[in-house]
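Consortium newsletter contribution from the modelling node. Members have asked for a concrete example of what our holo predictions look like. Here is one, prepared for the flavin-adenine dinucleotide complex that several groups have been discussing at recent meetings.
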Amino acid sequence: MTNVLVVGGGPAGLSAALFTQKNGLETTVFDTDGTWMHKAHLFNYPGIGSQDGSAYMETLRTQVDSFGVEHLQQEVTDVAATDDGFTVTTEEGDHEGSYLVLATGADRDLADALGCAFDGDLVEVDLSMETSVDDAYATGAMVRAEEWQAIISAGDGAAAALNILSKEKGEHYHDFDVPADAAATFGPEE
Ligand SMILES: Cc1cc2nc3c(=O)[nH]c(=O)nc-3n(C[C@H](O)[C@H](O)[C@H](O)COP(=O)(O)OP(=O)(O)OC[C@H]3O[C@@H](n4cnc5c(N)ncnc54)[C@H](O)[C@@H]3O)c2cc1C
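And here is the predicted structure:
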């Protein structure tokens, strides 16, 4: 059973997956690669000077995959709560997981199918992006009316992931690295 099921592989979903997998939770991302980032050119993502949106996604995918995230190019057609987590359904079959992160852009159908509470058209979430369904999170464009920015989606995904990690570790969790961690992970700087 996967620890974390992420539906959507845009900035929100991949950010969530990066944090959970990097910190030891087995994570699967389902994606149909329809991210709006393919239409964007970033000038407003702090730390990224000027970059084509698809190029940014390529870098992000490589970063996430390097930590061992399972990345499935499959459309999720249904999600349901079970006694101990969630089932995600694709044409290829069902997948079980303890936590669910929805990151499907402005498409809110899966949150609706799961029975999440809505505030008008928007999925209702708390500051950690958790929905009214325990252990199910909604992130990015689906929880906002118009404030659609890549950095906000990435932040939402990180907030969801840290909340999941805090639940798993039993205390408030932060993912701080120092230069020695980078050297241990990537080797010494040349
Ligand atoms: C023309 C244009 C220009 C933009 N320019 C900028 C800009 O300059 N700066 C900026 O910050 N933002 C920009 N944006 C907005 C930015 O692209 C979005 O804010 C960002 O992509 C939202 O990220 P997200 O992860 O919430 O959703 P998305 O990036 O939309 O990702 C959602 C992903 O989920 C997948 N998905 C959906 N449903 C399913 C399903 N059922 N099963 C599996 N996968 C599914 C989709 O295929 C997609 O890959 C622009 C958007 C557009 C349209």
